[in-house]
Amino acid sequence: MVNYPGMADDTLVKAFTEGSNEAFDTLLKRHQERIFTYIYRIVKNEDVANDIFQETFVKAIMTIKQGRYTQNGKFPAWVSRIAHNLIIDYYRQEKSENLQSADIQEIDILNRKELCEATIEDTIIAEQIQSDVKHLVEQLPPLQKEVLKMRYYQNLSFKEIANLTGVSINTALGRMRYAIINLRRIAAEKEIVLTV
Hints:
single chain, mainly alpha, Rna Polymerase Sigma Factor, Chain: A, Arc Repressor Mutant, subunit A, 2 domains, 8 helices, globular
C-alpha cells in the first residue's frame, strides 16, 4: 500500500501525472485550508472564495495534466500564485462590470458589444458550438455528465454539487476534472473545434 500522506508534494505531483488520483487528493487535503483561507481573507465573501478555490484546483489539475508544471519543490507557492491570479481576474472583471462613468461624455454606455445584435454568422457559429458541446456532454459517463451539467448549466458551486450528490468536494472536483479531460479527448478524436 502506498503511503501518500508521507510523500513530498513533488512526489505526489509525479504520482498524479502517472495516473494516481489519490496522490492529488492528498495534495488537495494538505493545502486546501491554507489556500481557501488566503482567498477568503482577500475577497471576504465565502461564495466567491469557494468559486475561486475550486477554479484554482481545476486550473492546477489541467496544468499538471498538460505537462506544464515544473517540479521545483514549491507546489504550495505555485498553487497560491494560481489563486492570486484568479483573484486579480475576479477583481478586474468586477471593475469592468461596474466601471461606467456618466461624467465622460465621449463614452456611450449603450454602445457595448454585449448589447449589440450578433451577425448571422456569429449566431450560426455559436449555435453549432452549443450543439457540439451538448452532443459531447451526452457521451460522458453519467457521474461526470451530472457534475458538469450542475456546474455549468445550473451554475452550482462544487460545495452545492457535493451536497446534492452526496459525495465529498474532492470527489466532485475529480469528476469535473475527468469530464473536462474526456470532453477534450472526444472533441479531438472527432476533430470538433469548440472555439470561434
